[in-house]
Amino acid sequence: KESSCTMLSNVNKESEKGENPGIRSLENNISGSDPPTLAFPSISTSDFKFSHEKAAEIIVEMVEEFMDKLGNARLVMVDISHGSKILSLVKAKAAKKNICSTKFFTFVGDITKLKSDGGLHCHVIANAANWRLKPGGGGVNAAIFSAAGPSLEEATKQQAKSLRPGSVVAVQLPSTSPLFNREGVTHVIHVLGPNMNPQRPNYLNNDYDEGCKLLRDAYSSLFQAFISIVK
Ligand code: AR6
After folding, report:
1. Could you tell me if the CB of 166 is within 6 A of ligand 1?
2. 115 CA from centroid of ligand 1 (Å)
3. Which protein residue's CA is at the shortest distance from atom 5 of ligand 1?
4. Residue 203: beta bridge partners?
5. pLDDT tens figures, 40-50
6. Which long-range contacts (CB under 8 A, 24 or more apart) does 83-86 make?
7. Does the structure's ipTM exceed the value 0.95?
């Protein structure tokens, strides 16, 4: 198990040129069929104003906890911006731990165009949702609902009407969705993270004891839901 990870990460390093290490060559050369992959954004750290430092700590901790449960599946943390602070923090923290770099890595790109723009096929993507599970509102939520088309809103409504902070709902994308057809995304997992923005619902008023607990719950539920989908 360990040797196959070492072998893969060497290939990964050798082909590393820019911010996104050797994804195309990994996909083309090593795996005939893509390993089941979850792409997730940093939950709560933009509009919800959660501490980047605390979030990075929790992300790496939760990824580490789930490593052994992944089988051949992998987790990819995505951010749209090249200067992403949270991505750099997570990358640095993950490098200090014994985390297999082919089972977990960071990637710069639009989560709605990972395959078409980035050559990275992700079967499942996570959304940083709002409690009403509504489209719009900016950020990654607006991008995913817009790229997926109205069928995502319909399919979501059939699963749940609202979300509690720290919880998730997994939605299978109807085959009519452009996100399914163009990007090969089969599921969207909506995640509601803790909110530290006084102008948004469920404001935690800087209570990071509760906030960190809820963010751990959110990632744990997300990774568990992904594993249930792909196993
Ligand atoms: N692709 C990849 N990453 C993205 C994209 C994209 N297209 N767009 C944004 N990000 P946010 P939150 C990154 O604010 O803090 C919404 O209005 C972004 O850089 O989307 O959990 C909802 O309706 C950041 O790192 O989510 C909620 O009300 C990360 O995605 C509220 O915002 C999450 O930023 C949720 O706030």
Report:
1. no
2. 19
3. 140
4. 195
5. 999 999 999 99
6. 84/42, 84/108, 85/52, 86/42, 86/45, 86/52, 86/55, 86/56
7. yes
Euclidean distance between CA atoms 78 and 108, whole angstroms: 6
Q: Which residues of the chain have pLDDT under 50?
A: 1-3, 6-18, 22-32
Distance from the alpha carbon of residue 141 to the mean position of ligand 1, in angstroms: 6
Note the pLDDT of residue 200. Answer: 97
CA 231–ligand 1 middle distance (angstroms): 28
Domain regions of the chain by residue span? 38-230
Q: Closest ligand 1 atom, CA of 143?
A: 7
Architecture of domain 38-230 in this structure: 3-Layer(aba) Sandwich (3.40)
The ligand 1 atom at the shortest distance from the C-alpha of residue 138 is 17
Q: Using CB atoms within 10 Å of the CB of residue 102, give its burial: 0 to 12 exposed, 13 to 18 middle, 19+ buried.
A: buried
pTM attached to this predicted model: 0.91
Alpha carbons 88 and 154: distance in angstroms, whole number: 36
Does residue 145's CB lie within 6 angstroms of at least one atom of ligand 1? no
